[in-house]
Amino acid sequence: MSEAPVTWPFHAYAWQLEAWQQLMLLLDAGRLPHALLLGGPAGIGKERFVQAFAARLLCAQPQAGVACGQCKSCHLLGAGTHPDLVWLRPETDEKTGKTAKAIKVDQVRELVDFAAKSAQMGGYRVVVISPAHLLNVQAANALLKTLEEPGRETVLLLVTAQPMALVATVRSRCQRLVLPVPSAADAMAWLRPQVRDEATAQLLLSLSQGAPLAALALRDAEWFGERERLLQDLLQLRQRRQTALAVAQRWHALGAESVLTVLGSLVDDMAVVASGATVVKHVDLAPIIATTSRQLLPARLLAFRQELAVKQRLLAGNVQGNALVDAAFAEWQQLALP
Known about the structure:
Strand content: 5-15%
Radius of gyration: 23 Å
Oligomer: single chain
Largest sheet: 5 strands, parallel
Number of helices: 15
Strand order of the largest sheet: 2-3-4-1-5
Mean pLDDT: 92
Helix content: 40-55%
Number of strands: 5
CATH class of the largest domain: Alpha Beta
Order of helices and strands: HEHHEHEHEHEHHHHHHHHH
């Protein structure tokens, strides 16, 4: 169990203003639910929103609807040491540096004890679970009673991009608030100053389904700069100029998660081109995408895409990543056969 430090100012993003106002109305009317499920696509700033809201709940003297940044509570928040805030995530092993793939029952049992006690600062107690869909079954079941009957002035905030992956008994005990994807104009206004190039910003947003934080993270992702080289290898495999195993082994260093992600994104565009359309997400690579997908049937590309999705699920279940990469390139080479 760990608390996430926050940095000032504790404002939500501009495109979240309507959702923020909804919560402020409930809070001011004394009707704030004790359990909120905050959903929305990845990369739109859900954690920033929940940080801002937790800060508002814990602040001793909020100003203009947000945390003041000056009181003792806000100073403790800024230092990541507030005694009335718990942020629950999958645990990271200090020795290996590996992060667990689930939030476990022992973590929730500690949380239950926390939620049952009185606030040390005399106000709210706030529990954030993020990403909530990583609660395993035992952990979710251990949380149910607290979701129904938390301690006095205790608010539980469950954050997830996959609300339907949560067990139904957890979902039914929470009031849901869906955070929006920003408009194209709002997303571009936020991203452009950080990317400093409009064409690149548009490309990143296209590849990130309009989610600006995901777009910014994509700019720094290693696989973003490897897309053209991967397409060249796929074309070489189609032309029988390389073996699938040799290609796969070169890509092991990138990591299975990244390889499967970029393959899936590129194949999505190939299927679009093979179907006769010309608009692709990887607009900077449109010519080589067209060449690589030439004479491939859309149905075969879509079947290959589904197999990639299966491999991504297997990877999440601890299947050996390099084996999945090897299989993906072997299947691609078979796909290219007449």
